[in-house]
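I hope you will forgive my troubling you with a question about protein structure. You will find the record immediately after this paragraph.
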Amino acid sequence: MFLRRVNIILSFTVLSAVILSCKGYEQVLKSRDYKLKLATAMEYYNTEEYVRAATLFDQIAPVYKGTIKADTVFYYQAKSYYLQRDYILSGHYFNALATDYPNSVFAEEADFMTAYCYYKLSPKPSLDQENTVNAITAFQLFMIKYSSSPRVEEAMTYLIELRNKLVEKSYLNAKLYYNLGDYKASIIALKNCLNEYPDTKYREEILFLILKSSYLLADNSIYSKRKERFQDTVDEYYTFISEFPESKYVKEAQKMYEFSTNIAGTTEQL
């Protein structure tokens, strides 16, 4: 019975504290004492109550703009959203800070975090890569602007990852035409992929798919176009085999070559 009463008292105490805390927060929100709002916002930030902190920073940011404390307010505003994993608003506020206060002690970090927020918003390769491109641009600008920064090495790591994602996106888009059986579009898309990313890790497969697309396009062509298109296949074979003579695709490539030379009217052999 005694323990039950103790538990009830403790529960009431905790509930009262929560109610008072909420009431205090509401009072601060309505207050016009901006020093109090700033102090309270920092208190919430330091106790990891980022939603409340961000709300208060949003209220006071316009008031502090142009003052000596402006960059500090904007920095913690951006950080509050970042720690909520709201990378859209966080990136927006970090970018505004870096743009409006380039001489701030927070400027370098703000520029880096602008890029990093884009990085966090970058989706898997099969989806739209606008944020990936934005992240690459932002990291490149950061590396130019802060070439001696210790963050440059980290930025380069992210750049490599982001570029690889664009390479994979380009490869997947090009391969989609092949999978759909649109071999003419497949050849164009695959060649564009190689032109844009000549060092791609998919180079061997892409060259083989260009060869195979050329072969299938020729094989499905009307009679008047077959000879010319099979000759194109022979040319693509030489391009492929000259780069990858030991490729796992050699046997299949050889069969397409032999068939194509017969149709094209050539007698060339390996």
